[in-house]
């Protein structure tokens, strides 16, 4: 593998620990299932890391505990944890999460994406950029960047069901 | 209680709408969008303002989102700022009433966020993610000369706005500040830096006199700044013989997400703001509660929640003349343009 990786030897986490809890209500077609943090986690857990053939869940970048959903006020807060504090991929990872949710969720949700406090040296700058919709809109008009995002999202639909083969 | 009444909804844009600009004298609204077009809208008749039509679609000149649009003071030209790093100048040919892009201004390194004509139409200002503000001189035959490239902001510049009477420019930035730019013998310089917002300043607008500015920020507040000239009666310190701008009022606790746009009516003095919280708010100076003009009180006289449904509202602008002084336009992520009327009852 290339020597230029930002984090050449990331820790890989066991992903079997999180299994979606299915409730009686979810099997009842007459009951509307609200979007909860399990659903959000399923949407983003299998996004591929930009530099490793691993998912964000396998790298512990996304964690179920760090997702808050408030259906009453249509707000979602996602905090993610870069593998290393100087990770230059942090904004790209955040952008992938944002695009995944833009494409999957109903329009009513306002989504805030942040680096988990204390896990990145440019926390403020990364957070500001990820939540500036004008920056996001411009980034998505950049075909090269969009291609990279789409590659990371190619595995997102696995929803944790099956892992990307690691080598 | 005063309230906002929907006059009309203008449908046609194929993507989010970023900004709207009213024609200086006629009832025509220009809007720009992520669909790379500018649309011109007018009411179908002079006595029915509920029905509007898109009379023109300006397209083909920009390869990416058109972020900003502004009528020249004569109303004969339009300027467009695009994420494709160019500024377009559009002119109406009266012979066939057709709009044509007659000039493309190049120079910015990346996305242009805002474009504005000076009050006389002699100058044009643009600003970009490349952190710079450019001042252009309008010459004859659609020629534009860059007079100055101002590079003192440390981050993206989100918006530029001209003083309503003088050649003074204000710029709002992702670096959380506002800068005031002036000219001295062909040299443009930063006359003041307004610090106080704690996040990106998205928008600003002067009052009618041009001695106050209202600014809107991602910090969810609006600030009203007042200009104090050297040797002012209030004893506010100034430096280098330049006027200094000071916050005289902060409006917080009204919007609970980023405030994307603010407009200060030059006709009736109302301030309108719109936000990612989906609401429009109207503020008026509380003349009874204001005992000191250096510490004015503003009150929120009307609010429209979910004015574009569940969508962010990106732009707001008051109708510029007495004719429909109670009108304002809003544009949103839903791709819609809405015309509202403030009803004082």
Automatic annotation (TrEMBL), chain A:
Keywords: Chromosome partition. The keyword Methyltransferase does not apply. It comes from the Eukaryota. Residues 38-113 form the MIP18 family-like domain. One of its GO terms (cellular component) is intracellular protein-containing complex. GO terms for biological process: chromosome segregation; protein maturation. Gene3D superfamilies: 6.10.250.1280, Fe-S cluster assembly (FSCA). SUPFAM superfamilies: Fe-S cluster assembly (FSCA) domain-like (SSF117916). Pfam families: FeS_assembly_P. The keyword Glycosyltransferase does not apply. Belongs to the MIP18 family. This is MIP18 family-like domain-containing protein. The lineage of its organism: Eukaryota, Fungi, Fungi incertae sedis, Mucoromycota, Mucoromycotina.
Automatic annotation (TrEMBL), chain B:
The keyword Repeat applies. SUPFAM superfamilies: WD40 repeat-like. InterPro entries: CIAO1/Cia1, WD40/YVTN_repeat-like_dom_sf, WD40_PAC1, WD40_repeat_CS, WD40_repeat_dom_sf, WD40_rpt. Signal peptide: none annotated. Keywords: Repeat, WD repeat. CDD domains: WD40. GO terms for biological process: iron-sulfur cluster assembly. It holds the Pfam family WD40. WD repeats lie at residues 10-41, 59-91, 105-146, 150-182, 194-227. One of its GO terms (cellular component) is cytosolic [4Fe-4S] assembly targeting complex. The keyword Calcium does not apply. Belongs to the WD repeat CIA1 family. Essential component of the cytosolic iron-sulfur (Fe/S) protein assembly machinery. Required for the maturation of extramitochondrial Fe/S proteins. This is Probable cytosolic iron-sulfur protein assembly protein 1.
